[in-house]
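Bit of a strange request maybe. I'm writing a small parser for structure token strings and I need a real example to test against, not something I typed by hand. Could someone generate the tokens for this chain?
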Amino acid sequence: MTTATQALAFTGVIAIGAMSPGPDFAVVVRRAALGGRASGVAAASGVASGVFLWSVAAAAGVAALVAAAPGVLAAIRWAGAAYLAYLGVRALIAAARPKPGPLAVGTGPAGGAFRDGLLCNALNPKAAVFFLALLPQFLPARPGVSDTLTLSLLAVAITLVWFSTVAVLVAALRRLFARPAVRRGLDGLSGLALLGLGARLALTR
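Reply from user aminoacidic:
Good idea to test on real output. This should exercise your parser:
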């Protein structure tokens, strides 16, 4: 059975991983800045759902199988890079042709934000490797379903709290981001950031 000490240590490592800048952070910030709190929290929920999928997969040995198959891992990597590039290009197009109106930011419904967060995390092979290396270290020699579920839910809760907090804080500045010049600048910067992250993921071995 997973001990309180193991759970606490796992919590700390997951918190550090969640707070590290990356594609998930970029997607949540952009969605919250241009779509408001609901859109940002939806993106955060998508990221947390991706974390849950990878943590359960790692505990079940699926992530180990993926990591041992270079072709599968490469396919996930290229799919993730392509999706980040798609998000980046979409942001740059929005920067070049912003929609009129103070809040007409054109980021789509909350469902689209959830999808962006989920796919951004689920198509990131670094998440697979992270949980593959991390989760077994905090499970007992013969883990039960409750052990896996406890750590998986901890990972989801920490991720959701962190990114939801980011979304709420960014959304509080939405009046600033709603200004046309600021909105175009944010779209342009986030587009370049997402393209850069996609290129880095594509080149990662």
